[in-house]
């Protein structure tokens, strides 16, 4: 089976797209000192074992830390001088999926050259057999990460009530613990993982429970994370949902007021809403767009010497604090900014996003579909028709076997019309 990196590592259904053999060969492709963690999926235990065996056979030294968040792995990789950090997770996907995310020694996603090298090792069925490396289990390293994110709070959270939806995932223990230690009153939901319920009608993709809990408990804030807690979704005290676009705008306004927004620019992606771009422009901030994927956002931040980057899905990077997306850390920063500004979260958001319809079209071969000239011509023609009223974006998913059709306009009718037409067109191509 050929395997390749998507926008966020290697990912697929466990036992089908992502097998024990692939995990072994992926570990066997690396060298040096590695640190590895996992989210709460049942399959993660087997994948960690296989990956670790492959790495040890290649002569690597492996430190396992157990269940933790993706940003925890990134932080420890960077600050404990590991050569690579590995997180076994499928992020926001259901429990039957799993994946392998790999960080460089700088705590950043791998370059495409290194990804290609790993892919070639896996796909060519190579095996490195050297002297067995050293294995170490060190769950106490988690405390160093917890202490770090706590240190980023510039004030105590006394008299603050927060609802945390941890998606029955990696943040189920860390997030409530951190907020309680900072003085907040915490209402924790979806914090009872059983290996099969990660992201199941909860977390950042399913915010209804969070909205209800914030209103019921009269909380000041609500935060939902995905399975590995590198994403965040917020809910204000009035029950309004703040996605990655709105949180980018929130942080941009706060940084601007604090006089620390470099070059008066922030980084978004091709999916960032036209409404947030116009709102940013209205306060003198320009939006730099990248391809979808937090690794591309991170690259743009570095290349342009900027501090704030975000994906609409909730990956938020505050580069002056930490070089990768961290849902729990960003939740702390939201509360911190509101307390220091003496404002409610609802007072920061003063724009309305454009209507945006995104439909996932599951296909047999997403690469083959995207390479068809008929689709390229059809998308171009439809974009010409919608010009002045909105925009259309058709792209392949980096994490699922589908084509994503996004139509954006001030009119929901226009969104529906153009999106449905393109969905049917793609389905016909897939026959």
Structural account:
The chain has 431 residues and is of the alpha/beta class. The chain is 37% helix and 22% strand. It has 14 helices and 18 strands. It has a 6-stranded mixed β-sheet, sandwiched between helices. It is globular and about 60 Å long.
Task: Detail the topology: elements first, then pairings.
Layout: E1 10-13, H1 20-28, E2 33-38, H2 44-57, E3 61-67, H3 70-79, E4 84-88, E5 97-104, H4 112-123, E6 135-137, H5 142-151, E7 161-165, H6 174-181, E8 185-189, H7 208-216, E9 221-225, E10 232-235, E11 241-242, H8 244-258, E12 265-269, H9 274-282, E13 286-290, H10 294-304, E14 308-310, E15 316-318, H11 327-341, E16 355-362, H12 366-370, H13 373-386, E17 390-396, E18 402-409, H14 412-429
Parallel strand pairs: 2-3, 2-4, 3-6, 7-8, 7-9, 12-13
Antiparallel strand pairs: 1-5, 4-5, 9-10, 10-11, 14-15, 16-18, 17-18
Helix pairs in contact: 1-2, 1-4, 13-14
């Amino acid at each position: 089976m050929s395997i390749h990196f998507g926008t966020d590592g290697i990912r697929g259904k466990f036992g089908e797209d992502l097998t024990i053999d692939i995990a072994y060969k992926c570990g066997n492709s690396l060298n040096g000192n590695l640190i590895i963690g996992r989210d709460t999926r049942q399959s993660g235990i087997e994948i960690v074992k296989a990956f670790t065996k492959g790495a040890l056979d290649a002569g690597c030294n492996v430190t396992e830390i157990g269940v933790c968040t993706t940003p925890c792995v990134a932080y420890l990789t960077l600050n404990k001088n590991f050569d690579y950090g590995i997180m076994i997770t499928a992020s926001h996907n259901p429990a039957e999926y799993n994946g392998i995310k790999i960080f460089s020694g700088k705590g950043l996603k791998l370059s495409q050259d290194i990804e290609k090298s790993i892919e070639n090792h896996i796909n060519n069925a190579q095996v490195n057999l050297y002297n067995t490396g050293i294995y170490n289990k060190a769950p106490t390293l988690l405390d160093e990460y917890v202490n770090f994110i706590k240190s980023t709070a510039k004030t105590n959270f006394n008299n603050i009530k927060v609802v945390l939806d941890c998606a029955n995932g990696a943040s189920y223990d860390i997030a409530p613990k951190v907020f309680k230690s900072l003085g907040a009153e915490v209402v924790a939901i979806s914090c009872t993982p059983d290996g099969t319920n990660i992201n199941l009608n909860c977390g950042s993709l399913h915010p209804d429970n969070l909205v209800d809990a914030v209103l019921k408990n009269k909380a000041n804030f609500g935060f939902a994370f995905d399975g590995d807690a590198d994403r965040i979704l917020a809910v204000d005290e009035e029950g309004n949902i703040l996605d990655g676009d709105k949180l980018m705008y929130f942080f941009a306004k706060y940084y601007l007021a604090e006089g620390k927004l470099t070059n008066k620019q922030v980084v978004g992606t091709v999916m960032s809403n036209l409404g947030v771009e116009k709102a940013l422009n209205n306060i003198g901030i320009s939006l730099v767009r990248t391809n979808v994927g937090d690794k591309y956002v991170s690259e743009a931040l570095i290349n342009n010497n900027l501090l704030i980057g975000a994906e609409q899905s909730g990956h938020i990077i505050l580069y002056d604090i930490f070089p990768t997306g961290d849902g729990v850390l960003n939740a702390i920063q939201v509360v911190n900014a509101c307390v220091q500004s003496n404002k409610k979260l609802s007072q920061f958001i003063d724009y309305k996003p454009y209507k945006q319809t995104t439909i996932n079209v599951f296909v047999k071969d997403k690469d083959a579909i995207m390479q068809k000239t008929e689709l390229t011509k059809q998308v171009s023609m439809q974009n010409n028709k919608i010009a002045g009223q909105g925009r259309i974006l058709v792209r392949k998913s980096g994490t699922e076997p589908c084509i994503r059709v996004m139509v954006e306009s001030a009119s929901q009718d226009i969104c529906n019309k153009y999106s449905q037409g393109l969905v049917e067109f793609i389905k016909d191509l897939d026959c």
